[in-house]
Write a structure and sequence with these properties.
The protein contains 15 helices and 16 strands. Helix 3 packs parallel to helix 5. The protein has one domain: Alpha-Beta Barrel (TIM Barrel). It has an 8-stranded parallel β-barrel, surrounded by 4 helices. A two-stranded parallel sheet has the order 6-8. The chain is 39% helix and 14% strand. Helix 14 links the parallel strand 13 and strand 14. It is of the alpha/beta class. The structure holds 2-(hydroxymethyl)phenyl 6-O-phosphono-beta-D-glucopyranoside. The site of 2-(hydroxymethyl)phenyl 6-O-phosphono-beta-D-glucopyranoside has 18 residues, from loops. 2-(hydroxymethyl)phenyl 6-O-phosphono-beta-D-glucopyranoside binds next to loops.
Length: 473
């Protein structure tokens, strides 16, 4: 009993939230670079307000982030010290194809990730690579409108062809799109989409989603052709919906809200559009731009495993008088049984076990938890040491629930990578103050600080968790 012997313990980051070096090594501009901190962030990442370049009025935290571009050796050494078996990171698309539509890749960008993967391998750390984590070359947005355009499939295919070949033997775990369902909630961040006045936004989102789903299947096909050792996963922003009351209307709504997200994974894992989605899209007059061969590609090249992020469960109420709170990009009803984080995210370890069971029942494929963690304010002492017992508590409870899903329910789980294993820029708010890490980084919301790294209390705790394969929490 217990977790697998080869359980993949580790941590996760995304290129734009930690690398910085936005114009280093020939890198091109991406959507994620031009999303600022502050009140304009929300309208920009949801595609309501256009921001295609830097201006003087805003601060853009991704430009420098925590400068991992120049410091990755030090950071990976710290991950190794904790005993990481896996490090989840993402590739900056515009490092490899600065504009996105070139024929030839940028060698400096390719070399950067090759060096980084080799650095991981030096310590026996397996890279788990997200091909796109909320990033899209800006040129593809300006010129083609982002993922609404079918041409994106070809550009993504070029990227995949290049990276699968170049990193063959170095990388064997791949995720095609981070939180693919985020396209519905943050379409500019998720898929480079912005909307014109009066445009049918849902049509654009589902059209773009279709392009991503086909691109994901093609990527899976190529990955398997290039190296049969490759394992390709999809990635869902997960979190079970609970009905607010036993009122049958709440129960049905909770099912429907879950389906909004599972729709993507149903296609990626079962290989076809589910019946409920076809009916719903038809009712709404939304047309899926299906072309010859799409159905076959989706059917034949389904994912090998299901990965997901889990921060919280969600609550659905059919009663219009029950108010939703917007604690994060998934607006949900407040659950009276749960505490919330400083950013209003509801904390529900048992919900992780429920979510894992639901997903495993639905797909019967190995699962991988690739994000989980607590965004909190940390107060370091003069040496940068943080006594983050609150983070340890959160993680211990979630890891216990995860173990219960494995040991008591028989869920097949490949690994666990906590989010933001080193402090990094928040995707939702752009703040540095919202920290998830085992490693503290001296930098604030305005970009001040030495960028010095230091170990928090949770660093030593997580090392012990990994050492004991999750026995000592
Ligand atoms: P931040 C919202 C809800 C669930 C997951 O989020 C989310 C978001 C975005 O805010 O995104 C994932 O940084 C995402 C990461 C992100 C992390 O959750 O807003 O994959 O890039 O940083 C945490 O606290």
């Amino acid at each position: 009993m217990g977790l697998r012997e080869d359980f993949l313990w580790g941590g996760a980051t995304a290129a734009n939230q930690c690398e910085g070096g936005y114009d280093a090594g020939g890198r091109g501009l991406a959507n994620v670079d031009v999303i600022p901190v502050g009140e304009d962030r929300r309208p920009i990442l949801t595609g309501k307000k256009k921001m295609f370049d830097f201006d003087d009025e805003h601060f853009y935290p991704a430009k420098e982030a925590i400068d991992m571009y120049h410091r990755y050796k030090e950071d990976i050494a710290l991950f190794a010290e904790m005993g990481f078996k896996v490090y989840r990171l993402s590739i900056g698309w515009s490092r490899i194809f600065p504009n996105g539509d070139e024929q030839e890749p940028n060698e400096e960008g390719l070399q950067f990730y090759e060096d980084l993967f080799k650095e991981c391998k030096k310590y026996g750390i397996e890279p788990l690579v997200t091909i796109t984590h909320f990033d899209c070359p800006m040129h593809l947005i300006k010129e083609y409108g982002g993922w609404r355009n079918r041409k994106m499939i070809g550009f993504y295919e070029n990227l995949c062809n290049v990276i699968f070949r170049r990193y063959k033997g170095l990388v064997k775990y791949w995720l095609t799109f981070n939180e693919i369902n985020m396209i519905l909630h943050a379409p500019f961040m998720g898929a480079g989409l912005y909307f014109e006045e009066g445009e049918n936004e849902e049509q654009v989102k589902y059209q773009a989603a279709h392009h991503e789903l086909v691109a994901s299947a093609i990527a899976t096909k190529i990955a398997h052709e290039v190296d049969p050792e490759n394992h390709v996963g999809c990635m869902l922003a997960a979190g079970q919906y609970y009905p607010y009351t036993p009122n049958p209307e709440d129960v049905l709504l909770a099912l429907e809200k879950d389906r909004e997200s599972y729709f993507f994974i149903d296609v990626q894992s079962r290989g076809e559009y589910p019946a409920y989605a076809l009916k719903e899209l038809e009712r709404k007059g939304i047309e899926i731009p299906m072309e010859d061969g799409d159905a076959e590609v989706l059917k034949e090249h389904t994912v090998d495993f299901i990965s997901f992020s889990y921060y919280s469960s969600r609550v659905a109420s059919a009663d219009p008088d029950v108010k939703k709170t917007a604690g994060n990009l998934f607006a949900t009803v407040k659950n009276p049984y749960l505490q919330t984080s400083e950013w209003g995210w509801q904390i529900d370890p048992l919900g992780l076990r429920t979510t894992m069971n639901t997903i495993y029942d639905r797909y019967q494929k190995p699962l991988f938890i690739v994000e989980n963690g607590l965004g909190a304010v940390d107060v370091p002492d003069e040496n940068g040491y943080v006594e983050d017992d609150y983070r340890i508590d959160y993680l211990a409870q979630h890891i216990q629930a995860m173990k219960d899903a494995v040991e008591l329910d028989g869920v097949d789980l490949m690994g666990y990578t906590s989010w933001g294993c080193i402090d990094l820029v928040s995707a939702g708010t752009g703040e540095m103050k919202k920290r998830y890490g085992f490693i503290y980084v001296d930098r604030d919301n305005e970009g001040n600080g030495t960028l010095k790294r230091s170990k928090k209390k949770s660093f030593h705790w997580y090392k012990k968790v990994i050492e004991t394969n999750g026995e000592d929490l």
